[in-house]
Amino acid sequence: MKPFLFFTLSLLICPITMIGQDVHFSQTASNTLIFNPANTGNFYGSWRFGHNLRSQWKAIGQPYNTISLSFDKPFLLANRKFSAGIYLLDDKSGVIGLHKSGLLLSVASQFFILHGILRLGVQGGLFNLSYDLNGATVPIQYDHSIGAFNSDLQYFEPNLGESKLYPDINAGFAYQVLLGKYNTEIGAAVFHINRPNNSFFESNKLDMTYKGHLEINFAVGEKIRINPATYFIYMAHASNLMLGSRVELDVPRNQSRLHSIFAGTYIRTGFDRTTDAIIALIGANLFQFRIGLSYDINISELQQATHNRGAFELSIVYTGLGRKINPSMIPCFRQ
After folding, report:
1. Using the 8-state DSSP alphabet, how is residue 310 labeled?
2. Strand extents, DSSP E, the chain
3. Helix or strand or coil: residue 2?
4. What are phi and psi of 147, to 5 degrees?
5. Which residues contact 304 (CB under 8 A, 6 or more apart)?
6. Are 260 and 284 in contact (CB under 8 A)?
7. 2: which residues sit within 8 A by CB, 6+ positions away?
8. What's the CA gap between 85 and 103, in Å, rounded?
9. Closest CA to 210 of 240, 186, 189, 231
10. Is 268 exposed, middle or buried (0-12, 13-18, 19+ CB in 10 A)?
11. Is residue 131 within 8 Å of residue 97, measured between CB atoms?
12. β-bridge pairing 64-77 and 258-269
């Protein structure tokens, strides 16, 4: 099957979802450990450090702020390539300050199968949920004498101020193969395999989340690379699909050690719902850093309140180059 036909079919049959307590980033290619544990160690180099910062919905009140840090490193064990990684997440949402923080540890291994590379990964860790009602009100705080809510009135809601700690287990695979000049990768992952209880008030098991991706990377001439991609998630009968393409241009040798610049456009949509954002991306590879800057332009019905303002996101990935870099049979453009 031709890569482009495969890519087109995947857009038609694979839904993508992001709902519930699962945070998401627009720069998925720069934040791979939270998308698929099999991405652990999937890069050229001795080690990799990543940082993502996202701020959303500032135009309509308290913004949703998400920060992530990651570190992963490949190593040899019994003449086989393994990788290990750690992922830290901190997310604050809305006026009640719903706070989600956690740590995930991941391991992955790779196998050569059918002229390609199959990577398998597992991930596990702990998350904590909490909230802060400072600045928020509940129905019992409605003051009839003033005809408005009064945050100084006492409330008698149970469990307020409590936090919730729960374990989380994820697993995934990715398969990468060179089809002619097209470096093609397809992968899928299942999150919340253990279906943890993340409710403050009663038993409420978190639904499993299914994630997948398809990326094609190919060169046009000697200096231009094109990377069409689709990322999808499905959770609790809701879907979200992000698809688009990135173009990267190599620059001539220079004293600033700017290796390449890139730009891309993506759209975030889904099935049985409206398209909510167009994502514009720019960035550069400088020294051993890969820096990306993106903005989500809101085009949903909410644009009447946001005036098309959505989310700002910054990614910084640093790849350490040691003396020994494990060679691969497939050229990989992932940074």
Report:
1. E
2. 47-56, 64-77, 80-93, 98-113, 116-130, 142-143, 148-149, 164-179, 182-191, 209-220, 224-235, 238-250, 258-269, 277-286, 289-298, 309-320
3. coil
4. 70, 30
5. none
6. yes
7. none
8. 11
9. 189
10. buried
11. yes
12. unpaired
pLDDT digit of tens for each residue in the chain (335 aa)? 444 433 333 333 333 333 344 677 889 888 899 999 999 999 989 999 999 999 875 555 567 889 999 999 998 887 788 999 999 999 987 666 678 899 999 999 999 998 899 999 999 999 998 876 665 666 666 777 777 767 666 666 555 557 889 999 999 999 999 999 999 999 999 999 999 988 777 778 889 999 999 999 999 988 999 999 999 989 888 888 899 999 999 998 877 789 999 999 999 987 777 777 899 999 999 989 999 999 998 886 555 545 556 789 999 999 998 655 454 444 444 44
DSSP labels for 221-267? TTTEEEEEEEEEEEETTEEEEEEEEEEEEE----TT-EEEEEEEEEE
Residue type, 168: D
What's the CA gap between 225 and 278, in Å, rounded?
A: 22
What per-residue string of b and e applies to 228-263 under the rule 16 or more CB within 10 Å gives b? bbbbbbbbeebbbbbbbebebebeeeeeeeebbebe
Nearest to 212 by CA among 4, 5, 9: 9
Residue type for position 12: L
Sign of CA dihedral 32, 35, 41, 46: positive
d(CA 117, CA 120): 10
Both tokens assigned to 191: 């999150």
In this structure, what token pair is assigned to residue 38?
């099999």
For the chain, counts of helices (H) and of strands (E): 2, 16
Amino acid at 203: S
Contact 107, 81 (CB under 8 A): no
